[in-house]
Amino acid sequence: MIKYPQTFRDETAVDSYKRSDGTTQQVADPYRWLENQDDPRTISWVKEQNQVTSNFINEKLTDQLHQEYMSRVNYEKFSWFRRRGSRLFFDKNPGLLNQSIIYFIDLDDSTQTEHVLIDPNSYAKDGTWSLSSIQISNSGKLVAYGYSQSGSDWVNFKVIRINGSEIEHLSDHLEYSKFSHPVWDQNETGFIYGRFPPPPTTTTTTTTTTTADTLDSSLGTENDVNEYQKLYYHRLGTQQSQDILIYESKEHSQYMFSVEFTTDYKYLVIYTSRDCNPEVNLSVITNWESVINDKTSTSFEEIKLVTDFNASYNLIHSVDDMFYLTTNLDAPLNRLIYFQLPKQSGQPLEIKSLVGQATDNLESVTSSSNKFYLSYLKDVQDVIKVYDIKGQYLYDIELPGPGCVSSFAANPYHTHIYFSFASFTYPSTIFYLNTIDDKVKLFKEPTVKNFNSNDYVCKQLFYNSKDGTRVPMFVVHKKDFAPKQSKPAPLMLYGYGGFEISLSPYFSLQNIFFIDKFDGVFVQANIRGGGEYGKEWHKNGSLHNKQNCFDDFISAAEYLMDQGYTTKDLITINGGSNGGLLVAATTNQRPDLFKVSIGEVGVYDMLKFHKFTVGSHWSSDYGCSEDPKDFDVLFGYSPINNVNLDAVKNKGITYPATLLLTGDHDDRVVPSHSKVPSIVLVVDTKFCWLPKKKT
């Protein structure tokens, strides 16, 4: 019998919510004190709970599995290559490094020597320093990179100048950015970035050291709401306090902004988002040069193109005043449009379709050599179609097979595309394409130890959910396994189902190791709420339709059992963040159906998520408990409010062995989401708590 730490209950902590029928619902919140990470009681509780988990886990077996797994993943890996000027930048992990090293090669140098640009592993001995973004200027001479620590979303930016094969760390040091990356100007004298006001629990530093600095250790432990993001222009060689304010909203604290220049750098395009939905407002600054460099104007001139968040918009290419964009306007599966930039705000946009909506979801578009490369998701597998500048279809890009393409990014300033291709049984491989002829060539192929793709089977199946909706899943297992003929196998069922995010095929030795070690089956269910089939697929799994996600996931498990793949005693479910919510909600609703539940940094308190850091932006997917209609729905599935005590106490059902993981510096899904359900779940259940700490 596992002995859990005694946990204080504050019986006075009660919240009141309005229901849609006008009544008031009282909701007890006795463990609210765990939201304060600096409370000595919280620190003590985490230590004791972690000790419970450590005592429960078989360290000898864990060490053995870890050693076996690490020997499998010890091979050279690449994930991206980018051409800038005469230099080729890329990342490489020689085997077992915590993070990949960033290199560059001078293509004009006949020796093709690999030079280290950034080694994230060298900045923190405990592995808590993380490279979060890297933006290379068009000339390849300047690199702005962002770094974070301990899993926090807070990012600092620094800059490197490259002279030949030598690198110089500049003194520029920018703080308090989240969900933003630097955008270089044409002259490469500076860049635009977004930042928030410093959290009230921290103090700004003014360090100008020439190596990557450590962040304030308290960053990421605060629960303060992040509001009033602003865009700034930073000129190289100046202090952050001198940065020029570019854009803000004083009226809307939750608005967030991002930017990009048009192809000729004549205009600056500004996107305004209000939540996690892709719909944005669109503006254009027309006198960037005259304000920033020529100094002939003192204020920016703005043309507001979209002001009602009526659709998604993403600039792909421009020719003078002609803009080419992707949008879901009147096209839930997206389309490619163009319009002439109006002379002033308020004039209607004369939008025309260049490539209309297809039968498959248009995920992304990139442009080079007067061509557009449109990437479609056809039953959760990538297809890339090429069109000319007039929207005339030319041909498909020949891919290695069914799978997923990543980092397929053309550039209007050169003709080189490097991209990665992978599937569940095809290791991530780098291919090269020149936009002059669009012929795909193998560039970097990994050598994976003890792996032969011919030993495995990956198939896509479709099953019916509770309401009859046809849902796809990928099933991966050894070639010699045959459902209903072989004995049922241990099975790992993974899902997400939220925020219009598509789960594409990917290669993971972790999955392969599970299959090999336990003669297992790995399954990825592409449930509603994601973006696999466009806007409607997302809508049917969000807000008041969220239950469809849980039904889809439960139906996937039932289908796999019916087809002879596994049994209730052999199935594990897994998901992270929104996927952690998926795992917890389905566990509560069907504790009899699963043997093990693993939730990673999950969103479990659906009544209060909007009160922490950037959680309010998730209301676009979940709703908000302050709205009575939303409360009725959220209170019906919120994991910490719906642990199935009746099933345990009155029906003799044992909850699955449950493992929740969180991070003590996770300031997106704050760790209290995992702490509270860990207490509530201790109802004669097998339960483990495993904080990720600072990794």
TrEMBL record:
Domain Peptidase S9 prolyl oligopeptidase catalytic: 506-674
Chain residue ranges for the region called Disordered: 195-219
Keyword terms of this UniProt record: Hydrolase, Protease, Serine protease
Pfam families: Peptidase_S9, Peptidase_S9_N
GO cellular component: cytosol
GO biological process: proteolysis; regulation of gene expression; regulation of signal transduction; response to lithium ion
GO MF annotations, alphabetized: oligopeptidase activity; serine-type endopeptidase activity
Catalytic activities: Hydrolysis of Pro-|-Xaa >> Ala-|-Xaa in oligopeptides
Keyword Repressor: no
Compositionally biased intervals (Low complexity): 202-211
Top-rank taxon, per record: Eukaryota
EC number assigned by the record: 3.4.21.-
Gene3D superfamilies per the UniProt record, alphabetical: alpha/beta hydrolase, Prolyl oligopeptidase, N-terminal domain
Peptidase S9A N-terminal domain sequence ranges: 5-445
PROSITE patterns hit by this protein: PRO_ENDOPEP_SER (PS00708)
Annotated family: Belongs to the peptidase S9A family.
Protein's name according to its UniProt entry: Prolyl endopeptidase
